[in-house]
Amino acid sequence: MQDYYNPQAKRVAVMGGTFDPIHYGHLVTAEAVRHEFQLDQVLFIPTGKPPHKAADTVSDSESRYLMTLLATESNDHFYASRMEIDRSGFTYTIDTIHALQQIYPVDTEIFFITGADAFYQMFSWHNAEELLKTCTFVAATRPGYQKEELIQRISATIQDHPMQRFHFLEVPALAISSSDIRARVRSGRPIKYLVPEAVENFIKKHRLYQKEESPHDIS
Ligand code: NAP
User: Fold this and answer.
1) Is residue 211 part of a domain?
2) What residues line ligand 1, using a CB cutoff of 6 Å?
3) Backbone angles phi, psi at 41, to 5 degrees
């Protein structure tokens, strides 16, 4: 049994992401969604082996998990989960949702939160049709994000209940991005106040993000 399991939890969210590294934009997003949707728990689940990214373009999963753990410890509603990094093979969101459905009571509502750009690809995800039926989705957008095209695309795909289970939340703090943080570290610029101090220290101590990224690393 996972240590975050709470049989009383009626509304649980997966905060899905690569978290390379986790930053304040992610934390502010999760807290805003928690408040907006009255969530009992937010499970931050770093991706294991993403099907859409070359393995050598993403930092090792243990480092990403440990930074996620450090960043979430101070919030009683936040938990870091090893669920995806410990799973062998490619990481598919539908498998994560199925695993949570086995753990939580049948009437627990499961939310899935991630960046709007990631949602844009979701119709090509593994078992997308089923996934669309199992969760309530929250797409976090950076300021100025043009969501109309995404809304049209989703409505055209899920014609039965257009947009019913899709929500958008604009989060100004998402002006922070993981790719910018990695670039800052590489060029010796500060990342203080962009990530929690413990994450900043972890990056320094373990000398993450020192080497040049190839163009397809940038997300
Ligand atoms: P990504 O392509 O690395 O990120 C796309 C954009 O969304 C980036 O701008 C990213 O900013 C932002 N973002 C990512 N996670 C976020 C979060 N939790 N909150 C706010 N913004 C976020 O996407 P990814 O991280 O690989 O994947 C996102 C989620 O979708 C993961 O849970 C992944 O497992 C799932 N996914 C599933 C499948 C599948 O089942 N086949 C395929 C693809 C993705 P930052 O870089 O600053 O985070």
Assistant:
1) no
2) 15-18, 26, 29, 47, 50-52, 91-93, 113-115, 117-118, 121, 125-126, 140, 174, 177-179, 219
3) -145, 145
